[in-house]
């Protein structure tokens, strides 16, 4: 099962490598990982997308909680939540493809944020699967470069992850 | 308030923590600290001969006394040599603070002389580590380090201090308290869960108690003993938990696991309610988890570390909390219970297993290693601190020395580090000057830290080294005999030193023992005649004696190989 694990941790040097090191040392996989400071500069919010059986996910959350720099851990996918990922994708846009790519970006509610005579850079936000679908919808030969931010997530409604 | 250098602050922090001994080895990056150490006499320094032994000795002190052990090493090779010691302590949850010097802050990352990324290298084998970046942080970091090391599930903490920080100055005030929003270990167990556990216990028909190192570490053996006697249940202590319950008591079934007794393993496998306390269902204890899990039984698991619960085996009643607190609450609830199940039939079955006397061993005209341990137990009246190395001798010591009290048995159970025995004995002797300390070792293990004979001489430690010398790496040879058709690949050393002369060269007493009838007189010489000397007994034992019973790796607990089967 795919899980989105959100972590609040001390914004200190080395804290990220403690989390990343735990995953590699115990053989857990990391599909995506994002990290940045929160509104409180002493705190970082880290989001990891991982796969595992219930037993593995239980161990992951327990092991994360054991790290001294980790303040809170929550498995977002346990309840209603929103996930978003940002993608910047550079495509070859020349001749007849220009119009077609523009139309495709509109359908996916993407924005073209850089234009040259032969290329576009498209910005697209959404769930992982939406970004995947967009990539599939494009002609693979036209894709020059993709950059994805990894998943960020937040619980719906009153549910918050705070100190 | 006067200004102090970082080095002075380090020493003041150790004094505030009432640290009596620091085990260490000086070097460039820690010279400022060693200079401050020189100027005072409250914190005593034990100079070892290799940094690995510094950490092991601090670990031995911690295991034998329940204090936090402290070691100090220099940067680069000092720190890397310490890693084995740190990893050993980490696997067995031993509270340590290890101070390492680091190159000056401005040199970090420049591949400076004796530079290594100590915080990076030790990260996977510490409970936590710190790189000090400002002299103002030293006091708080030390306070936190000792607090983290000794609370919750204990473990080693490394403090890496760049040399310029030990020269910088600031005012010193040791924090009275420590508050960390990210670290608040629980102590009290969940009341509802404890109630559920008690109901399971009073209704059990085939109950079993299984306890590990957590009971020893949390100093809960008194509560455990009272509870076990009240329940009247059979009990087993793991390799890490020996001494938590008196081994000479009739409710004690011996050690479980790979080299456990038949009765302990069969009872673990066949019980209907298992009370696991401060133990972690290690592969050397329960064997194959599928085989173990195939037997229906209810498991209650008390542990301070939630990640130990349901890690290898699904648990029915998890109780996260400090063992003594939970046992106290359990005892209170049990006293209110009127009736227990009659478990006489279960005991009868257990006595049947016990009657097979799985620990009996063949007696030959050479010295049997098991016999040596039995005699060691007799001459020390079962009350010595036994520091063991790793291998066959470790298992024989665990099987045949009946530990009645906790913190008498020191061994590397988790990491299985050869070479710990002698430094453990040194640490234990420093912490327990009034107790007999023996090191049970083998001709392979002892050579991994033999240089510490020199440390023992310098500090006048009257250790007794029981070297069960079979001229083989015995445990490796045993596996090669059983699983590799006797191809003894690299398990024999053909130039073992003359240990008697070696001991003498270090200024100690060395005695070679070659005949069974000489064992007792030699032990007498060591423990009585040469009471105040370090005595190295080089005992030539049966070359091919094996450790039995045995559950082969990957097998189930009821699939034991007994000595008589072969």
Treating each run of at least 4 consecutive H or I residues as one helix, how many helices of chain A?
4
> What is the average of the pLDDT values of chain A?
96
Spatially, the strands of the biggest sheet of chain B line up as 3-2-4-5-7-6
Terminal Cα span of chain B: 74 Å
Q: Treating each run of at least 4 consecutive H or I residues as one helix, how many helices of chain B?
A: 22
Mean pLDDT of chain B: 97
Taken in chain order, the helices and strands of chain A follow as EHEEHEEHEEHEE
Query: Radius of gyration of chain B, Cα only, in angstroms?
Result: 24 Å
Q: Supply the CATH superfamily name of the largest domain in chain B.
A: Thiamin diphosphate (ThDP)-binding fold, Pyr/PP domains
Quaternary organization: heterodimer
CATH topology group of the largest domain in chain A: Alpha-Beta Plaits
The fraction of residues in strands of chain A falls at: 35-45%
